[in-house]
Design brief:
There is one protein chain. This protein is mainly beta. The chain is built from no helices and ten strands. Helices cover 0% and strands 51% of the residues. The two termini are 19 Å apart.
């Protein structure tokens, strides 16, 4: 089983979460109607929000690594997209920058293949998102 590097419920604003190489600038478009947008040093994922104040604006974010995932993937989650990211010495930040709910994730520097999983395939409805890292 993959190692869980981060798992926490984050408060989300503007229907999105970000995984960003620490010290990098946000780049590329917000996901908006796109499920996942990859840009250098940055991954943006469309998620659910507060549905006009009817539910709390919470999304569970997980980051896992380094082992190959089982053929069945991650229980309860669907693969959305895959790409590559170059992590620097300071690791990563994950969460929602608009709400200010961001956490540091210690990932060793290097190039990684990242697969993004979520509990929904429609933007913006996801309440669970997982980023899985493997050495590229």
């Amino acid at each position: 089983m993959p190692e869980i590097l981060h798992r926490r419920v984050h408060s989300v604003s503007h229907y999105q979460i970000d995984l960003l190489v620490k010290g990098a600038e946000m780049s590329g478009p917000d996901a908006g109607g796109t499920l996942v947008a990859f840009a250098p040093g940055h991954i943006n994922v469309a998620t659910a929000w507060d549905e006009n104040g009817t539910v709390p604006p919470h999304v569970e974010i997980s980051v896992s690594g380094y082992e190959r995932l089982p053929a069945a993937g991650i229980a309860g989650l669907l693969p959305l997209a895959a790409g590559y990211i170059e992590v620097g010495a300071e690791g990563l930040e994950v969460g929602n920058y608009i709400s200010g709910d961001v956490a540091h994730v210690a990932v060793p520097n290097g190039t990684y293949a990242v697969t993004v999983f979520a509990d929904k395939l429609e933007a913006p409805t996801a309440r669970k998102v997982q980023f899985h890292f493997r050495a590229a």
